[in-house]
Amino acid sequence: MPRRVDHDERRRHIVGALLRIAGTQGLDAVSMREVAQEAGVSLGAVQHYFASKDAMLLHALEQWLNLDVHRSFAERIRARVAREPAATPLATLRAVAAEYLPHDDATSLEARVGLSFQSRAAVTPALAAALVPAYTGFVDTLRGILRHSGRPLDADTAARELAALLDGLRHPVLIGALPYADALGIVDGHLARLLAHERRA
Amino acid sequence: MPRRVDHDERRRHIVGALLRIAGTQGLDAVSMREVAQEAGVSLGAVQHYFASKDAMLLHALEQWLNLDVHRSFAERIRARVAREPAATPLATLRAVAAEYLPHDDATSLEARVGLSFQSRAAVTPALAAALVPAYTGFVDTLRGILRHSGRPLDADTAARELAALLDGLRHPVLIGALPYADALGIVDGHLARLLAHERRA
DNA sequence: CCGTGTACAATACGAGTGTATTGCAAAAAC
DNA sequence: GTTTTTGCAATACACTCGTATTGTACACGG
């Protein structure tokens, strides 16, 4: 077998170009030629690594969820929590919210990529199938943090509620209908009410 | 001036076809020819009523927000509240949530249309500009209902929070990651906590 | 060193896109 | 009844799209 190249590395490189386009111009603007140009390779190279555009999009979503999001997002959370006086569940959740909501170019791009894929997944079962475990994983993570709060709350319901709140706050912030600080304030209020609450759920 | 036809009616007819396509196959599947065929008219007719595809999409979003959503949605809310024993703020908000979350073909289509436009608005300022007042209007409506609860809460923040929660719950329901009943239960818990709450916000 | 299979590059193809152009039937204006 | 203007239909044009095909440089196994 000739020509040793790192197959996975090339795919990550191409997918990176794809995500950059999707984050700035939307998934509609993603064509194989555009991706090739953004990645600095030929159309033939892109075709060589992905059998079809659908396969490329699916692989892009999976890589984005498993590598880009998981890694950089978790890293930013840790960095933010480290700056806090105490790594309490509340501080951690606030850090998650602060990083999840779009507040600069990188996070806005991330939010747009997520929104694009969510929109397409609504009419493309293959993408929905890849998105479901990511949603479940996010909820599990939130639930794990909530469990450490020591409060008598339904952690699973609270986690799903928080996930939905964060996701739902992204859109008005993205289109400029709600300032980032206001969105963060809403999450703060939600968390305060949730964790200070002693009554029945 | 010859040939009297109701200009607005024809536009609504064409836009209706467009929204049907967007709701079932996504906004990407919307082409002028597809819209023409779905509407049962010629491509020339569509061009006659819309100067460009962008103008058609913008008009479609505006009509959808101002006519389809406002009218049918408000109507369904009223019908649902009428079935309740008392038209309390809580009952009204539960009705809003029950109708907002996708639970049948019509509401799933509505949610997919909304999601498609949100996604495109993130990269198309003209669409974002049309979406902002719709968001504001929705928040105003929720705030108006919350004000009648007689609870000492920050109605504006609570309204924005509820709007985000509802929007964020739509997506996992759409992709089948969260059952409709569970989503509604989350809203119930949120409303109960919100309206039963006596402490500071 | 020589074949063999890999990693591309280049190009071609048919389908579909938005838009512009042209033509024409019919109804109102005169 | 002629003229004019509207409401469309048909078609053409220049692209772009995903995909298929072909060619080739080149590293490895033998």
From TrEMBL, chains A, B:
<dbReference type="Pfam" id="PF00440">
    <property type="entry name" value="TetR_N"/>
</dbReference>
<keyword id="KW-0238">DNA-binding</keyword>
<dbReference type="InterPro" id="IPR036271">
    <property type="entry name" value="Tet_transcr_reg_TetR-rel_C_sf"/>
</dbReference>
<dbReference type="InterPro" id="IPR001647">
    <property type="entry name" value="HTH_TetR"/>
</dbReference>
<dbReference type="InterPro" id="IPR039538">
    <property type="entry name" value="BetI_C"/>
</dbReference>
<dbReference type="InterPro" id="IPR009057">
    <property type="entry name" value="Homeodomain-like_sf"/>
</dbReference>
<keyword id="KW-0805">Transcription regulation</keyword>
<dbReference type="GO" id="GO:0003700">
    <property type="term" value="F:DNA-binding transcription factor activity"/>
</dbReference>
<dbReference type="Pfam" id="PF13977">
    <property type="entry name" value="TetR_C_6"/>
</dbReference>
<keyword id="KW-0804">Transcription</keyword>
<dbReference type="InterPro" id="IPR050109">
    <property type="entry name" value="HTH-type_TetR-like_transc_reg"/>
</dbReference>
<feature type="DNA-binding region" description="H-T-H motif">
    <location>
        <begin position="31"/>
        <end position="50"/>
    </location>
</feature>
<protein>
    <submittedName>
        <fullName>HTH-type transcriptional regulator PksA</fullName>
    </submittedName>
</protein>
<dbReference type="GO" id="GO:0000976">
    <property type="term" value="F:transcription cis-regulatory region binding"/>
</dbReference>
<feature type="domain" description="HTH tetR-type">
    <location>
        <begin position="8"/>
        <end position="68"/>
    </location>
</feature>
<keyword id="KW-0678">Repressor</keyword>
